[in-house]
Amino acid sequence: TIGAVGDALGRSVFVVGGFVRDLLLRQENFDVDIVVEGDGIAFAEEYARRYDCRVRAHKKFATAVLIFADGFKVDVASARTEYYLEPGALPTVENASIKLDLYRRDFTINTLAIALNGPHFGELLDYFGGQNDLRGKAIRVLHNLSFVEDPTRMFRAIRFEQRLGFQMGRHTVHLLKSAVRMGFLDKISGPRVFNELVLIFRESDPLPAMRRLDELGLLAFIHPTLSVRHLSDGTFAAAKQAVDWYELLYTGERCQRWKVFFLCLLSDLDHGEVQQIVQRLAMPPQCEEFFGSERDAATRILNQIEWRSMQSYRWRDSDIHALLKDLPVEALLYGMAITEHEEARRTISHFITHLRHVKCLLRGHDLQSLGLAPGPIYREIFDALLDVRLDGQVVTREDELQFVTN
Ligand code: ATP
Protein backbone atom coordinates (compact mmCIF):
# COMPACT_ATOMS: atom_id res chain seq x y z
CA THR A 1 0.00 0.00 0.00
CA ILE A 2 2.91 2.37 0.66
CA GLY A 3 4.22 1.91 -2.85
CA ALA A 4 0.74 2.43 -4.30
CA VAL A 5 0.43 5.83 -2.59
CA GLY A 6 3.91 6.69 -3.86
CA ASP A 7 2.82 5.75 -7.39
CA ALA A 8 -0.34 7.84 -7.09
CA LEU A 9 1.66 10.87 -5.95
CA GLY A 10 4.45 10.26 -8.46
CA ARG A 11 6.99 9.87 -5.65
CA SER A 12 9.61 7.20 -5.12
CA VAL A 13 9.27 5.50 -1.75
CA PHE A 14 11.74 3.24 0.04
CA VAL A 15 12.00 1.24 3.22
CA VAL A 16 15.45 1.92 4.65
CA GLY A 17 17.97 1.44 7.44
CA GLY A 18 17.73 -1.00 10.34
CA PHE A 19 14.65 -2.74 8.96
CA VAL A 20 16.41 -3.72 5.73
CA ARG A 21 19.61 -4.64 7.60
CA ASP A 22 17.69 -6.96 9.91
CA LEU A 23 15.62 -8.36 7.06
CA LEU A 24 18.81 -9.45 5.30
CA LEU A 25 20.15 -10.83 8.58
CA ARG A 26 16.81 -12.59 9.11
CA GLN A 27 16.33 -10.89 12.46
CA GLU A 28 13.07 -9.54 13.78
CA ASN A 29 12.61 -5.77 13.55
CA PHE A 30 9.31 -3.94 13.81
CA ASP A 31 10.75 -0.43 13.34
CA VAL A 32 9.78 0.43 9.79
CA ASP A 33 11.46 3.56 8.40
CA ILE A 34 10.17 4.91 5.11
CA VAL A 35 11.89 7.57 3.02
CA VAL A 36 9.93 9.47 0.39
CA GLU A 37 11.66 11.41 -2.35
CA GLY A 38 9.83 14.66 -1.85
CA ASP A 39 7.46 15.76 0.89
CA GLY A 40 7.16 12.95 3.45
CA ILE A 41 4.44 14.72 5.42
CA ALA A 42 2.20 15.18 2.36
CA PHE A 43 2.80 11.52 1.56
CA ALA A 44 1.84 10.43 5.09
CA GLU A 45 -1.32 12.55 4.99
CA GLU A 46 -2.36 11.06 1.67
CA TYR A 47 -1.65 7.57 2.99
CA ALA A 48 -3.77 8.23 6.09
CA ARG A 49 -6.66 9.50 3.94
CA ARG A 50 -6.69 6.28 1.97
CA TYR A 51 -5.94 3.71 4.64
CA ASP A 52 -7.58 5.11 7.72
CA CYS A 53 -4.74 5.71 10.14
CA ARG A 54 -3.53 8.73 12.08
CA VAL A 55 -0.58 10.98 11.27
CA ARG A 56 1.68 12.84 13.65
CA ALA A 57 3.76 15.31 11.70
CA HIS A 58 7.00 17.02 12.79
CA LYS A 59 7.22 19.99 10.43
CA LYS A 60 10.63 21.05 11.69
CA PHE A 61 12.21 17.77 10.59
CA ALA A 62 9.87 17.14 7.62
CA THR A 63 9.02 13.76 9.14
CA ALA A 64 5.78 12.06 10.12
CA VAL A 65 4.62 8.98 11.96
CA LEU A 66 1.76 6.83 10.67
CA ILE A 67 -0.15 5.36 13.59
CA PHE A 68 -2.40 2.40 12.85
CA ALA A 69 -5.47 1.36 14.85
CA ASP A 70 -3.56 -1.51 16.54
CA GLY A 71 -0.80 0.87 17.64
CA PHE A 72 1.68 -0.15 14.94
CA LYS A 73 3.78 2.80 13.81
CA VAL A 74 5.71 3.61 10.68
CA ASP A 75 8.19 6.49 10.48
CA VAL A 76 8.19 8.53 7.31
CA ALA A 77 11.03 10.89 6.37
CA SER A 78 11.57 13.20 3.43
CA ALA A 79 14.54 13.00 1.10
CA ARG A 80 14.55 16.47 -0.37
CA THR A 81 14.63 16.44 -4.13
CA GLU A 82 14.73 20.13 -4.96
CA TYR A 83 18.49 20.58 -4.62
CA TYR A 84 19.52 17.47 -6.40
CA LEU A 85 17.11 16.93 -9.22
CA GLU A 86 17.10 19.43 -12.04
CA PRO A 87 13.80 19.67 -13.88
CA GLY A 88 13.89 17.05 -16.60
CA ALA A 89 16.84 15.35 -15.00
CA LEU A 90 18.40 12.46 -16.83
CA PRO A 91 17.50 8.96 -15.72
CA THR A 92 21.05 8.54 -14.39
CA VAL A 93 20.39 11.03 -11.60
CA GLU A 94 17.18 9.30 -10.71
CA ASN A 95 17.29 8.36 -7.01
CA ALA A 96 19.97 10.99 -6.35
CA SER A 97 18.07 12.21 -3.31
CA ILE A 98 17.65 8.78 -1.73
CA LYS A 99 21.34 8.18 -2.37
CA LEU A 100 22.25 11.37 -0.56
CA ASP A 101 19.85 10.50 2.26
CA LEU A 102 21.57 7.14 2.65
CA TYR A 103 25.01 8.73 2.47
CA ARG A 104 24.19 10.75 5.60
CA ARG A 105 23.72 7.59 7.63
CA ASP A 106 26.07 6.12 10.16
CA PHE A 107 27.36 2.78 8.84
CA THR A 108 27.30 0.97 5.53
CA ILE A 109 25.09 -1.80 6.95
CA ASN A 110 22.45 0.86 7.67
CA THR A 111 22.47 2.32 4.16
CA LEU A 112 20.47 -0.37 2.42
CA ALA A 113 17.07 0.50 1.00
CA ILE A 114 14.32 -1.40 -0.76
CA ALA A 115 12.17 0.31 -3.39
CA LEU A 116 8.42 0.06 -2.84
CA ASN A 117 7.00 1.60 -6.03
CA GLY A 118 5.06 -0.64 -8.38
CA PRO A 119 7.52 -1.36 -11.17
CA HIS A 120 10.55 -1.37 -8.88
CA PHE A 121 8.97 -3.07 -5.89
CA GLY A 122 11.50 -5.14 -3.96
CA GLU A 123 14.62 -3.79 -5.68
CA LEU A 124 17.52 -3.46 -3.26
CA LEU A 125 19.56 -0.25 -3.34
CA ASP A 126 23.10 -0.79 -2.14
CA TYR A 127 25.25 2.24 -2.96
CA PHE A 128 27.87 1.89 -0.24
CA GLY A 129 28.69 -1.79 0.02
CA GLY A 130 26.22 -2.59 2.77
CA GLN A 131 25.52 -6.16 1.63
CA ASN A 132 29.21 -6.89 1.45
CA ASP A 133 29.71 -5.66 5.02
CA LEU A 134 26.71 -7.65 6.22
CA ARG A 135 28.33 -10.75 4.75
CA GLY A 136 31.74 -9.83 6.16
CA LYS A 137 30.22 -8.86 9.55
CA ALA A 138 31.85 -5.44 9.43
CA ILE A 139 30.80 -2.08 10.86
CA ARG A 140 32.19 0.64 8.62
CA VAL A 141 31.58 4.37 8.46
CA LEU A 142 30.92 5.94 5.09
CA HIS A 143 33.59 8.62 5.18
CA ASN A 144 36.54 9.84 7.25
CA LEU A 145 34.68 12.63 9.03
CA SER A 146 31.78 10.48 10.17
CA PHE A 147 32.72 10.37 13.88
CA VAL A 148 33.69 14.02 13.85
CA GLU A 149 30.38 14.98 12.30
CA ASP A 150 28.45 13.02 14.92
CA PRO A 151 30.46 11.54 17.81
CA THR A 152 27.45 9.57 19.12
CA ARG A 153 28.21 7.20 16.25
CA MET A 154 31.15 5.90 18.30
CA PHE A 155 28.69 4.52 20.84
CA ARG A 156 26.40 3.26 18.09
CA ALA A 157 29.29 1.47 16.35
CA ILE A 158 30.13 -0.42 19.55
CA ARG A 159 26.48 -1.23 20.23
CA PHE A 160 25.97 -2.72 16.74
CA GLU A 161 29.30 -4.57 16.89
CA GLN A 162 28.33 -6.38 20.05
CA ARG A 163 24.66 -6.87 19.26
CA LEU A 164 25.25 -8.35 15.83
CA GLY A 165 28.54 -10.08 16.64
CA PHE A 166 30.26 -7.87 14.01
CA GLN A 167 33.59 -6.04 14.13
CA MET A 168 34.49 -2.52 13.21
CA GLY A 169 36.67 -2.36 10.12
CA ARG A 170 40.33 -1.43 10.72
CA HIS A 171 40.02 2.00 9.19
CA THR A 172 36.84 2.66 11.17
CA VAL A 173 38.57 1.74 14.45
CA HIS A 174 41.45 4.00 13.47
CA LEU A 175 39.05 6.90 12.79
CA LEU A 176 37.26 6.28 16.08
CA LYS A 177 40.50 6.28 18.05
CA SER A 178 41.63 9.51 16.41
CA ALA A 179 38.29 11.15 17.16
CA VAL A 180 38.60 10.10 20.84
CA ARG A 181 42.19 11.34 20.98
CA MET A 182 41.22 14.67 19.49
CA GLY A 183 38.52 15.16 22.14
CA PHE A 184 35.50 15.09 19.86
CA LEU A 185 33.48 13.30 22.52
CA ASP A 186 33.39 16.59 24.41
CA LYS A 187 31.19 17.94 21.66
CA ILE A 188 28.28 15.65 22.52
CA SER A 189 25.83 16.98 25.07
CA GLY A 190 25.31 15.09 28.33
CA PRO A 191 21.80 13.88 27.48
CA ARG A 192 22.96 12.42 24.16
CA VAL A 193 25.76 10.45 25.81
CA PHE A 194 23.32 9.33 28.50
CA ASN A 195 20.87 8.19 25.84
CA GLU A 196 23.56 6.13 24.09
CA LEU A 197 24.56 4.46 27.36
CA VAL A 198 20.94 3.61 28.14
CA LEU A 199 20.57 2.07 24.66
CA ILE A 200 23.63 -0.11 25.31
CA PHE A 201 22.31 -1.14 28.72
CA ARG A 202 19.04 -2.15 27.07
CA GLU A 203 20.83 -4.72 24.92
CA SER A 204 20.44 -8.27 26.15
CA ASP A 205 24.06 -8.56 27.34
CA PRO A 206 25.71 -5.16 27.77
CA LEU A 207 29.01 -6.36 29.22
CA PRO A 208 30.96 -6.92 25.96
CA ALA A 209 29.97 -3.45 24.75
CA MET A 210 31.03 -1.97 28.10
CA ARG A 211 34.41 -3.66 27.80
CA ARG A 212 34.83 -2.26 24.32
CA LEU A 213 33.82 1.25 25.44
CA ASP A 214 36.43 0.96 28.16
CA GLU A 215 39.13 -0.36 25.85
CA LEU A 216 38.56 2.46 23.36
CA GLY A 217 38.61 5.16 26.04
CA LEU A 218 34.94 6.12 25.91
CA LEU A 219 34.19 5.32 29.56
CA ALA A 220 37.16 7.26 30.85
CA PHE A 221 35.94 10.23 28.87
CA ILE A 222 32.64 10.14 30.80
CA HIS A 223 34.55 10.03 34.07
CA PRO A 224 38.22 9.22 34.72
CA THR A 225 37.36 6.63 37.37
CA LEU A 226 34.76 4.87 35.23
CA SER A 227 35.92 1.48 34.10
CA VAL A 228 34.73 -2.09 33.91
CA ARG A 229 38.20 -3.47 34.53
CA HIS A 230 37.52 -3.85 38.23
CA LEU A 231 34.24 -5.68 37.61
CA SER A 232 34.36 -9.41 37.50
CA ASP A 233 32.61 -11.01 34.54
CA GLY A 234 30.23 -12.34 37.15
CA THR A 235 28.71 -8.97 38.11
CA PHE A 236 26.97 -8.22 34.83
CA ALA A 237 26.07 -11.87 34.38
CA ALA A 238 24.50 -11.86 37.85
CA ALA A 239 22.63 -8.64 36.98
CA LYS A 240 21.33 -10.24 33.80
CA GLN A 241 20.29 -13.32 35.74
CA ALA A 242 18.47 -11.21 38.36
CA VAL A 243 16.65 -9.16 35.71
CA ASP A 244 15.67 -12.25 33.68
CA TRP A 245 14.46 -13.94 36.86
CA TYR A 246 12.37 -10.88 37.74
CA GLU A 247 10.84 -10.67 34.28
CA LEU A 248 9.80 -14.33 34.52
CA LEU A 249 7.98 -13.62 37.76
CA TYR A 250 5.45 -11.40 35.94
CA THR A 251 4.72 -9.25 38.96
CA GLY A 252 2.87 -6.90 36.65
CA GLU A 253 5.47 -4.21 37.30
CA ARG A 254 8.17 -3.90 34.68
CA CYS A 255 11.71 -3.09 35.71
CA GLN A 256 14.01 -0.79 33.81
CA ARG A 257 16.82 -3.24 33.23
CA TRP A 258 19.24 -0.55 32.11
CA LYS A 259 19.20 0.94 35.61
CA VAL A 260 20.34 -2.35 37.14
CA PHE A 261 23.31 -2.56 34.75
CA PHE A 262 24.13 1.10 35.20
CA LEU A 263 24.28 0.60 38.98
CA CYS A 264 26.69 -2.30 38.44
CA LEU A 265 28.94 -0.08 36.35
CA LEU A 266 28.96 2.49 39.17
CA SER A 267 29.35 -0.06 41.94
CA ASP A 268 32.93 0.85 42.90
CA LEU A 269 32.45 4.61 42.80
CA ASP A 270 31.77 6.78 45.80
CA HIS A 271 28.88 9.20 46.17
CA GLY A 272 30.86 12.21 44.92
CA GLU A 273 32.10 10.44 41.80
CA VAL A 274 28.61 9.26 40.92
CA GLN A 275 27.30 12.79 41.37
CA GLN A 276 29.90 14.06 38.90
CA ILE A 277 28.71 11.49 36.38
CA VAL A 278 25.07 12.42 37.00
CA GLN A 279 26.00 16.06 36.28
CA ARG A 280 28.13 15.22 33.26
CA LEU A 281 25.30 13.25 31.70
CA ALA A 282 22.72 15.88 32.75
CA MET A 283 20.41 13.12 33.91
CA PRO A 284 16.74 13.94 34.35
CA PRO A 285 15.61 14.57 37.97
CA GLN A 286 14.16 11.12 38.65
CA CYS A 287 17.41 9.48 37.52
CA GLU A 288 19.35 11.97 39.62
CA GLU A 289 17.40 10.74 42.64
CA PHE A 290 17.81 7.10 41.64
CA PHE A 291 21.60 7.30 41.26
CA GLY A 292 21.86 9.62 44.27
CA SER A 293 19.78 9.05 47.38
CA GLU A 294 18.21 5.76 46.28
CA ARG A 295 21.55 4.20 45.36
CA ASP A 296 23.02 5.36 48.69
CA ALA A 297 20.07 3.86 50.57
CA ALA A 298 20.39 0.59 48.66
CA THR A 299 24.11 0.35 49.50
CA ARG A 300 23.47 1.05 53.18
CA ILE A 301 20.64 -1.47 53.40
CA LEU A 302 22.58 -4.12 51.50
CA ASN A 303 25.43 -3.73 54.00
CA GLN A 304 23.00 -4.22 56.86
CA ILE A 305 21.49 -7.31 55.26
CA GLU A 306 24.90 -8.79 54.54
CA TRP A 307 26.12 -8.08 58.05
CA ARG A 308 23.04 -9.62 59.62
CA SER A 309 23.26 -12.68 57.34
CA MET A 310 26.81 -13.17 58.52
CA GLN A 311 25.54 -13.15 62.11
CA SER A 312 22.93 -15.76 61.06
CA TYR A 313 20.32 -13.27 62.17
CA ARG A 314 16.84 -14.76 62.17
CA TRP A 315 14.68 -12.40 60.16
CA ARG A 316 11.04 -11.88 60.66
CA ASP A 317 9.31 -11.07 57.39
CA SER A 318 8.17 -7.77 58.86
CA ASP A 319 11.85 -6.82 59.47
CA ILE A 320 12.75 -7.57 55.88
CA HIS A 321 9.77 -5.62 54.66
CA ALA A 322 10.59 -2.60 56.82
CA LEU A 323 14.14 -2.55 55.46
CA LEU A 324 13.40 -3.00 51.79
CA LYS A 325 9.95 -1.56 51.17
CA ASP A 326 11.07 1.86 49.94
CA LEU A 327 13.71 0.67 47.49
CA PRO A 328 12.90 0.67 43.77
CA VAL A 329 12.86 -2.79 42.26
CA GLU A 330 15.94 -1.98 40.14
CA ALA A 331 17.94 -1.29 43.30
CA LEU A 332 16.75 -4.59 44.79
CA LEU A 333 17.84 -6.51 41.70
CA TYR A 334 21.18 -4.71 41.79
CA GLY A 335 21.57 -5.84 45.42
CA MET A 336 20.88 -9.42 44.36
CA ALA A 337 23.48 -9.12 41.58
CA ILE A 338 26.23 -7.50 43.56
CA THR A 339 26.12 -9.35 46.88
CA GLU A 340 28.49 -12.20 47.48
CA HIS A 341 26.34 -13.56 50.30
CA GLU A 342 23.92 -16.21 49.16
CA GLU A 343 21.83 -15.65 52.27
CA ALA A 344 21.50 -11.90 51.53
CA ARG A 345 20.47 -12.69 47.95
CA ARG A 346 17.82 -15.08 49.22
CA THR A 347 16.49 -12.47 51.63
CA ILE A 348 16.01 -9.96 48.81
CA SER A 349 14.46 -12.48 46.43
CA HIS A 350 12.11 -13.63 49.20
CA PHE A 351 11.04 -10.01 49.68
CA ILE A 352 10.39 -9.55 45.95
CA THR A 353 8.45 -12.77 45.49
CA HIS A 354 6.49 -12.99 48.74
CA LEU A 355 6.47 -9.74 50.69
CA ARG A 356 6.64 -6.75 48.42
CA HIS A 357 2.99 -6.70 47.42
CA VAL A 358 1.42 -7.84 50.68
CA LYS A 359 -1.39 -5.51 51.77
CA CYS A 360 -3.70 -5.59 54.77
CA LEU A 361 -7.35 -6.19 54.03
CA LEU A 362 -9.00 -3.50 56.14
CA ARG A 363 -9.54 -0.03 54.69
CA GLY A 364 -10.19 3.39 56.20
CA HIS A 365 -13.95 2.93 56.20
CA ASP A 366 -13.55 -0.31 58.21
CA LEU A 367 -11.71 1.59 60.91
CA GLN A 368 -14.39 4.28 60.82
CA SER A 369 -17.12 1.71 61.35
CA LEU A 370 -15.20 0.53 64.39
CA GLY A 371 -15.70 4.05 65.73
CA LEU A 372 -12.15 5.28 65.19
CA ALA A 373 -11.87 8.91 64.09
CA PRO A 374 -9.61 9.39 61.03
CA GLY A 375 -6.14 10.74 61.81
CA PRO A 376 -2.48 9.76 61.97
CA ILE A 377 -3.51 6.76 64.10
CA TYR A 378 -4.80 5.13 60.89
CA ARG A 379 -1.29 4.96 59.45
CA GLU A 380 0.00 3.37 62.65
CA ILE A 381 -2.80 0.81 62.64
CA PHE A 382 -2.24 -0.12 59.00
CA ASP A 383 1.51 -0.46 59.59
CA ALA A 384 0.92 -2.69 62.59
CA LEU A 385 -1.64 -4.73 60.66
CA LEU A 386 0.79 -5.21 57.81
CA ASP A 387 3.50 -6.39 60.21
CA VAL A 388 1.30 -9.01 61.84
CA ARG A 389 0.06 -10.13 58.43
CA LEU A 390 3.64 -10.44 57.15
CA ASP A 391 4.54 -12.51 60.20
CA GLY A 392 1.55 -14.78 59.72
CA GLN A 393 -0.36 -13.72 62.83
CA VAL A 394 -3.44 -12.63 60.91
CA VAL A 395 -4.89 -14.26 57.82
CA THR A 396 -8.54 -13.31 57.37
CA ARG A 397 -10.41 -10.03 57.57
CA GLU A 398 -11.93 -11.17 60.84
CA ASP A 399 -8.41 -11.73 62.25
CA GLU A 400 -7.56 -8.16 61.32
CA LEU A 401 -10.73 -6.74 62.91
CA GLN A 402 -9.98 -8.78 66.03
CA PHE A 403 -6.42 -7.43 66.07
CA VAL A 404 -7.62 -3.82 65.84
CA THR A 405 -10.30 -4.16 68.51
CA ASN A 406 -7.77 -5.70 70.87
P1 ATP B 1 17.86 -0.28 16.34
O1 ATP B 1 17.55 -1.69 16.01
O2 ATP B 1 18.81 -0.12 17.48
O3 ATP B 1 16.66 0.60 16.44
P2 ATP B 1 18.33 1.10 13.88
O4 ATP B 1 19.36 0.90 12.83
O5 ATP B 1 16.90 0.95 13.50
O6 ATP B 1 18.72 0.16 15.08
P3 ATP B 1 17.79 3.77 14.80
O7 ATP B 1 18.51 4.46 15.92
O8 ATP B 1 16.35 3.47 14.93
O9 ATP B 1 18.66 2.47 14.51
O10 ATP B 1 18.05 4.62 13.49
C1 ATP B 1 17.41 4.34 12.27
C2 ATP B 1 18.36 4.64 11.13
O11 ATP B 1 18.76 6.00 11.17
C3 ATP B 1 19.66 3.82 11.22
O12 ATP B 1 19.54 2.59 10.56
C4 ATP B 1 20.67 4.73 10.59
O13 ATP B 1 20.63 4.55 9.19
C5 ATP B 1 20.15 6.12 10.88
N1 ATP B 1 20.83 6.76 12.01
C6 ATP B 1 20.48 6.72 13.32
N2 ATP B 1 21.33 7.42 14.07
C7 ATP B 1 22.25 7.94 13.25
C8 ATP B 1 23.40 8.78 13.41
N3 ATP B 1 23.79 9.19 14.62
N4 ATP B 1 24.07 9.12 12.31
C9 ATP B 1 23.68 8.72 11.10
N5 ATP B 1 22.64 7.92 10.87
C10 ATP B 1 21.93 7.53 11.92
UniProtKB/TrEMBL annotation:
Superkingdom per UniProt = Bacteria
Family affiliation: Belongs to the tRNA nucleotidyltransferase/poly(A) polymerase family.
This chain's protein is named Adenosine-specific tRNA nucleotidyltransferase
Q: From which organism does this entry originate?
A: Syntrophotalea carbinolica (strain DSM 2380 / NBRC 103641 / GraBd1)
Q: What is the lineage of its organism?
A: Bacteria, Pseudomonadati, Thermodesulfobacteriota, Desulfuromonadia, Desulfuromonadales
The full protein's residues present here are 471 to 876 of 888
